[in-house]
């Protein structure tokens, strides 16, 4: 089942940071699409909630070196 969630991201310093987050998420099984907007400091993730949940997505972002807080699910 496809779901969407948005996170407010803290700790990004440049556009490369946003690309790092997107790359880490897109390499994660269950994530179908990830788009991080550096200017807005927001990541939007589409995912299959039968394979991954919001907490696991947040962990991927955190393990990439950034702070993530859910702003919309």
Question: What is the count of DSSP helices, taking H or I runs of 4+ residues?
Answer: 2
**Major sheet attributes:** 4 strands, antiparallel
Count up the domains.
Answer: 1
The span between the termini is 14 Å
Give start-end ranges of low-pLDDT stretches. none
Rg result: 11 Å
What integer is the average pLDDT? 96
* Structural class assignment: alpha+beta
Number of strands: 4
Strand arrangement across the biggest beta sheet: 2-3-1-4
Helical residue percent? 25-40%
Summarize the structure.
The chain is an alpha+beta fold.
Task: Write the topology of this structure.
Elements: E1 2-10, H1 15-26, E2 31-37, E3 42-48, H2 54-63, E4 67-72
Antiparallel strand pairs: 1-3, 1-4, 2-3
In words, what does this structure look like?
The chain is an alpha+beta fold. It has a single domain (2-72), classed as Alpha-Beta Plaits, CATH 3.30.70.100. It is built from two helices and four strands. The protein has helices spanning 15-26, 54-63, and strands at residues 2-10, 31-37, 42-48, 67-72. Strands 2-3-1-4 form a four-stranded antiparallel β-sheet.
Note the main attributes of this structure:
73 residues; alpha+beta; Alpha-Beta Plaits; four-stranded antiparallel sheet; 2 helices; globular
């Amino acid at each position: 089942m496809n779901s969407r969630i948005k996170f407010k991201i803290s700790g990004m310093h440049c556009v490369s940071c946003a690309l790092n987050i997107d790359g880490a998420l897109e390499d994660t099984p269950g994530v179908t699409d990830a788009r991080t907007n550096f200017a807005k400091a927001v990541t939007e993730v589409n995912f299959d909630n039968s394979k991954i949940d919001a907490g696991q997505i947040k962990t991927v972002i955190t393990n990439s070196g950034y702070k993530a807080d859910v702003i919309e699910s």
